Amino acid sequence: MALDLQVIVLFMEKSIK
């Protein structure tokens, strides 16, 4: 589902910070 992708993107962005 697209939701999973959105969660991964959010997590990645947080990890970068």
Detailed description of the structure:
The structure is a single chain. This protein has 17 residues and is an all-alpha fold. The model has no long low-confidence stretch (mean pLDDT 92). The chain contains one helix and no strands. 88% of the residues lie in helices and 0% in strands. It comes from Blumeria graminis f. sp. tritici. This is Bgt-46.
List keywords for this structure.
mainly alpha, Bgt-46, 17 residues, single chain
Number of strands: 0
Instruction: Tell me the strand percentage band.
Output: under 5%
Structural class, by secondary structure, is mainly alpha
Instruction: Give the end-to-end Cα distance, rounded to a whole number of Å.
Output: 26 Å
Radius of gyration from the CA trace? 8 Å
The amount of helix comes to: over 70%
Mean pLDDT: 92
Give the low-pLDDT segments. Answer: none
General shape:
rod-shaped
What is the ordering of alpha helices and beta strands? H
Largest sheet features: none
Count of runs of 4 or more consecutive helical residues: 1
Put the structure in a nutshell:
Helices cover 88% and strands 0% of the residues. It has 1 helix and no strands.
